[in-house]
Amino acid sequence: MIKLENVSKVFKGDVVALREAECEIGKGEFVFLVGPSGSGKSTMIRLLNKQEEPSSGRIFVAGKDIGELNSWKVPYLRRNIGCVFQDYKLLTNKTVYENVAFALEVIGRPRHVIKTQVPAILELVGLSKKHKNYPDELSGGEQQRVSIARAFVNRPLILLADEPTGNLDPATSVGIMRLLDRINRTGTTVVMATHDRSIVDTMRRRVIELDRGSIIRDQARGVYE
Amino acid sequence: MAVNASYVVRETSANLTRNITLTVASILTVFVTLAIVGTIVLVRQGAQNLTARYQKGVEFIVYVDPDISEDQLAQVRTSLEDNPGIREISYIDRAETYADFKELFKGQDTMLENVTAEDLPTSFRVKPVDPSVNTVQGLVNYYRKQPGVFQVTAATEVIRQLKGMSDFLNQGLTVFGALLLAASALLILNTVRTAMFARRREIEVMKLVGATNWFIRVPFMLEGLVQGLIGGALAVGFVFLAQRWIDDLIDRGPALDLLEPFSVDSSDVLVACLAVSGIAIVLSVVSSALATRRFLDV
After folding, report:
1. Which residues of A touch B211 (CB under 8 A)?
2. What is the phi/psi pair of residue B13, to 5°?
3. Cross-chain residue pair A79–B209, CB shorter than 8 Å
4. With an 8 Å Cβ cutoff, are B201 and A107 in contact?
5. Which of A193, A207, B132, B162 could in theory staple to A33 by disulfide, Cβ–Cβ 3.0 to 4.6 A?
């Protein structure tokens, strides 16, 4: 599903964010990216949906070299990749329902599809009763559920999560992880960057560890360190 | 890419009303700019009409000395009649000249009291065969040197001056108009960019979930287009008014009779309106396209 071939990313001033990264992630896998801040986890995630371009190397998503993708095709790549962030990135002037519906609306889905898909996904994340609330009326955990609903409503092949539990307490984080696990079991490939030792140690999934831009460990059913 | 019409209408009107002061400012600037541009087009058409008319129908007037003898007068007349370059002449006698004079200086009693019919030179109105400015000027120069001729006047110099003046006016106004157009374009660009900046979080989300650039861009471009079109429509209205004003101004006094051919007809107004609308559309589309481009770079 995802393949990195000798991928490096160097920012201005010779800051090496990723150094000759090699890895392959299969369909339906659940992968943790771990490592200290600045080790290249976020860069790797941003490279996968073409928010950043690699300085060298090739990245394949669903069998396609995304470096050769025309810029007008990038939106279609992103429709297959859901994204979840530490800061949720919800639109504060829209309700829960509208936030999720927005993701379908802007990729031109017809209204009847939106009307059936959005309630279904809100049911899945457990927010049916709060669909009329605005983001600032929700707890952090609930906001992250909305953001996951938005990322998953279009049933993408891949879900990228950049420290989704970074702003949440441990109990709430467990709930979020259950949700991501459920999404993973529908066949969606999940790549999650995290600092959360207890989550990684409890879930026992594949762990890719980064340090100063290099992959230093790639372990099936791994632990944080 | 299916762009949902209700989505586009909703987003465009939201963009326009979100920052109403800037929207109004750019509409007004577009209006003022295009009103001036439209007027420039009208003035240019008018000036063309004016010079074209004079270049076709130029006459000149040969004034004879007020104290000319009958013989000399007859000589001047024959010389005019025999000239193959002259089509037609008519003699304005003393009484007629004085009547014209009274009409011209109506209300200026000192002039009327002090000038008698005998003080005024009588004249021949001469229509040349070839009315081009150069031929007329040749004839004028020739008759100036004839005995018994007091003065020869022709519109040729006036035309030359008018043309020079209108050229100068045209160039000045065109530079001015171009600067205003640039200001309008920048203002629309800035307004659209401000709207995009206000919605940068939405745009970010749209890009992350895979909205195409065109989908994101269309409401913002329409915002610019609407501003341009409203400003342009107001300017078209102004051009119609401007035509009325020019006509009224010319009709107001006999002193401006000379400018009669300056009046613009409806085809000139049509040209001006088309120019204004065309510029409005191009201006707003180009500036909003430029405004939306940078924000959408991945």
Report:
1. 75, 106-107
2. -70, -35
3. yes
4. no
5. A193
